[in-house]
């Protein structure tokens, strides 16, 4: 969450597809509202379905931050021919960004303390590492510098 997947995907390809946007269109409400009404498990089921559909298309996709939590999703990403770019960050950078990003309030941010979010971050990091075909360390770098590294 907050590593810049949507920001960097937009720079890579302005006609990129953001998984969260596809999900919002499908559920007809903000993700945080859906979490409240239907719960995270229902969200994860839709997320997996959307991932499967999008990996059968071409182009740049920015995933949701929690996509690596499901073994099935990791299998879908590993088996796809896609390049999977992990924007690797330290926790403090991500925490500052998601705290400041008032235009996109993440439900996991609302529902978890800083300590709990750090635990989520630590559980996810090795999962991202395991499926990535390219790892870019993003802390302290501008979006343009990150784009250049990806394209190098
Ligand atoms: N390299 C960067 N330097 C500084 N700020 C950045 C950078 N990349 C993104 N941001 C800012 O950080 C916030 C989160 O970025 P973004 O929404 O692209 O992250 P994300 O990985 O798509 O998050 P999520 O997992 O919730 O979808 C935004 O406010 C964005 O403007
Ligand atoms: O990190 C997560 O689990 C999430 C990140 C967002 O992109 C959204 O997909 C949703 O808020 C869940
Ligand atoms: Mg995003």
TrEMBL record:
The keyword Kinase belongs to this UniProt entry's keyword annotation: yes
One GO cellular component this record assigns the protein to is:
cytosol
Q: Which GO terms describe its molecular function?
A: ATP binding; magnesium ion binding; shikimate kinase activity
One matching Pfam family, short form?
Answer: SKI
List, separated by semicolons, the cofactors it needs: Mg(2+)
Report the subcellular localization: Cytoplasm
**Residue numbers binding ATP:** 2-7, 106
CDD domains per the UniProt record, alphabetical: SK
Pathway(s) per entry: Metabolic intermediate biosynthesis; chorismate biosynthesis; chorismate from D-erythrose 4-phosphate and phosphoenolpyruvate: step 5/7
What chemistry does it catalyse, as a reaction equation?
Answer: shikimate + ATP = 3-phosphoshikimate + ADP + H(+)
Its EC number(s) = 2.7.1.71
Entry's cofactor comment: Binds 1 Mg(2+) ion per subunit.
Biological process terms from the Gene Ontology for this record are: amino acid biosynthetic process; aromatic amino acid family biosynthetic process; chorismate biosynthetic process
- Note the PANTHER family from the entry: SHIKIMATE KINASE (PTHR21087), SHIKIMATE KINASE 1, CHLOROPLASTIC (PTHR21087:SF16)
> HAMAP family recorded for this chain?
Shikimate_kinase
Biological role? Catalyzes the specific phosphorylation of the 3-hydroxyl group of shikimic acid using ATP as a cosubstrate.
| Quaternary structure and interacting proteins, as annotated | Monomer.
Q: What is the name attached to this protein's record?
A: Shikimate kinase
- In which organism is this protein found? Pseudolactococcus reticulitermitis
Q: What is the lineage of its organism?
A: Bacteria, Bacillati, Bacillota, Bacilli, Lactobacillales
List the gene name: aroK
